[in-house]
């Protein structure tokens, strides 16, 4: 996928006749990519009315720590500028009305496509998580509770499940903070094992945006911050989305 992204980016740059120093894509204009303004992007990602199921809502499997911290951040949405992100079963649902650049769009006859972190439908058995985003500070907090279907060492979460959640939180943050769409790199340093069914708090920040790349960092820790589970960094590529033509 990454190689394909670079190939498409190179073709786009070639067709637009770039004669300056090599760049991945021409400078992105958020207004043209997401409608009249970045507000349009938020309205697409956070629809006020939808029949889609939001999987980032409390259910009976959530541990007490996850429930109480969820309530704390929900209060912050009322006064501190935080936004609770909905989580639909597919990223297609999050970018309705927009299409990928030519060469990246694919057609599929599969009617039930799901994002990897929402592929386990039984509550509490897989990825239980919710992401809160702070637009002005370009940062996110993800509350993640790994279920028993994500086990690696007996009683503990597989490292790949944490990597997947970091990538998912990075991607949603990158998309809303700077139109980032594709992971170019993801580096993780694991520190401690995560007990299955426990709460992991992931603090994600956008460190900088330059040359159409978003550079991001994440610390995954326990609620009391006494245990660090992992630290990671990621780089995301900005790609211009286009308005879909009306049918």
TrEMBL record:
Limits of the Thioesterase domain: 155-228
UniProt entry keywords in alphabetical sequence: Fatty acid metabolism, Hydrolase, Lipid metabolism, Mitochondrion
UniProt KW Hydrolase keyword: yes
Record-level Gene Ontology MF annotations: long-chain fatty acyl-CoA hydrolase activity
A Pfam cross-reference name: 4HBT
SUPFAM superfamilies membership: Thioesterase/thiol ester dehydrase-isomerase
UniProt-listed Gene3D superfamilies: Hotdog Thioesterase
Compartments in which it is found: Mitochondrion
Chief location of this protein within or outside the cell: mitochondrion
Gene Ontology BP terms: fatty acid metabolic process; long-chain fatty-acyl-CoA metabolic process
Enzyme class: hydrolase
Domain of life assignment: Eukaryota
Record's catalysed reaction(s): (9Z)-octadecenoyl-CoA + H2O = (9Z)-octadecenoate + CoA + H(+); hexadecanoyl-CoA + H2O = hexadecanoate + CoA + H(+); tetradecanoyl-CoA + H2O = tetradecanoate + CoA + H(+); (5Z,8Z,11Z,14Z)-eicosatetraenoyl-CoA + H2O = (5Z,8Z,11Z,14Z)-eicosatetraenoate + CoA + H(+)
InterPro entries noted in UniProt: HotDog_dom_sf (IPR029069), Thioestr_dom (IPR006683)
E.C. number(s) listed in UniProt: 3.1.2.2
GO cellular component terms, A-Z: mitochondrial matrix
Family: Belongs to the THEM4/THEM5 thioesterase family.
Name this protein carries in UniProt: palmitoyl-CoA hydrolase
Lineage, highest ranks first: Eukaryota, Metazoa, Chordata, Craniata, Vertebrata
Gene name in the database record: THEM5
